[in-house]
Amino acid sequence: MTDLPALVIVFPIFASIVVLLFGLVRQRIGWPIATIASVVQVAMAGSLAIRGFDGDPVRYVVGGFTTPYGIELVIDGLSATMIVLVAVVALGVLGYARTAGPRSNSFYATYLLLVAGLTGMSATGDMFNMYVFLEITGLTAYALVASGKSGRSALAALKYLLVGTFGASLFLLGIGYAYVATGTLNMNDLSGQLAAVGHTSPLVQAAFGLLVVGLFVKIAVFPLHTWQPAAYAGAPDTVSSLISALVSTVSAYALLRIVFSVFTVDFLAANPFARNVLMAGATISIVVGSLLAVAQNEIKQLLAYSSVSQFGLIIGAIAVGNGTALTGAAIHLVGHAIMKGGLFLTSGLIGNSTGARTVEEFEGLGKYLPAGAGSFGIIALAMVGVPPTIGFVGKWYIALGAVEAQSWPLAVIILLSTLLTLAYFARLIERMYFREPATTTSSVETTETTAAIDVATDGTGTAPSMGMWMTVVATAVLSVVLGVVAFEYGQLLEPTIEHLLP
């Protein structure tokens, strides 16, 4: 047994400290150190994933203690997927961040701490440590949102802080209830102890409710989503893409892990109301999130409300709880991270190039910025679920799982969601390719455009670099290529899903 499961969490923290120390003697040293650290992180995550998909889960107890007293890290197909996703997306966004900014050393130190928090949430097999990593993730995300120089960024960060703290507090209360009921916090041990206490025990039911609602806040399930549009729209473009791709994604993974590894399908069978709460949250988020996205004019707000809807699909898959739906949830988590992160990066690049930040300002974009419009269009169609993209495969598995479980209302809602997603993205595609450019959109010197760039790029206002273009095009290509290989990935996940659903 190597120490790789622990190193993949500790290394970004160490790199963050290195950035701060070298930053004392040299400015602008943060980006190269963060990039080198991210490359190493991708290599470690890839090595760990090979072991995670190869048979039984890898279990590592920190400090040589034995479970349930030691802090356990568990690497299976799902957690390995999240660790690789976090590492790859973080590295990809760095390619965009070099020019787009923010460029301070403190920004990149915080960036690496966020990577550590997300990786820890993915790998931990201990409930209290999941809370610790959840807090690290939250605090660093608040700081990154506030890294923009505008007042809008500061206000968004404050709102994110207040709502996020509320969610984390509920999560901690849920852990406390579970500990009082069982006396353990190790997830594997907790699963058996909760069954021994009784899944219909009020204490166990209260723990489940608090944990789920706390994570609903972090995932931004309607009506607990209010922090998300403000945070995504108010943050610098680099931060919007990073947190939209990873923060809610890993929180949704945590919900899946807690429901099936800790409380198990037996709890859902003994408490139909719990499954109904998950299904209600999913249905309302899918419908209302889509309707709110259709009503938006600002691109980043539109994308934020789209996330509310897309994560409703994940919650729906968890509520269905069969192997097909959970495979779809895992695929859609990966797909949404790539697609939504790519859409925020592309909208930021378009904003830098043309000043276009609203739906109307996208008119004629296909003529004067064909590569940017093309990338945005491809990723948007992937988000709708057009074959053979990754967006199609994830929705296909979730819908098929709903049909297998005879959850017909959810199957209908998924179809409705696809039509609503098409509605708000078709509006943009139509304006990009079937309308003439508006005269005001090409000017980057208007007051409104300058203000938009201030929000988008931390005030740098720099023209898009080759790194920004390569990152955007790569996400468009990945949205298609991952769809081709997603079915094979689903087969690789089968041992992990069977372990979750014995």
From TrEMBL:
Its localization reads:
Cell membrane
A biological process (GO) annotation for this entry?
ATP synthesis coupled electron transport
Residue ranges of domain NADH:quinone oxidoreductase/Mrp antiporter transmembrane in the record: 125-421
| Keyword ATP-binding assigned | no
This protein's membrane topology, according to the annotation, is: Multi-pass membrane protein
The answer on whether this UniProt entry bears the keyword Cell membrane reads yes
The membrane spanning regions, by residue number, are 6-25, 32-53, 73-94, 106-124, 130-148, 160-182, 202-221, 242-265, 277-295, 368-387, 407-426, 468-487
* Primary location recorded for the protein, binned into one broad class: membrane
Q: Name one GO molecular function term.
A: NADH dehydrogenase (ubiquinone) activity
Q: What's a single GO CC term here?
A: plasma membrane
UniProt keywords, alphabetically: Cell membrane, Membrane, Transmembrane, Transmembrane helix
UniProt-recorded name of the protein? Monovalent cation/H+ antiporter subunit D family protein
Highest classification ranks of the organism: Archaea, Methanobacteriati, Methanobacteriota, Stenosarchaea group, Halobacteria
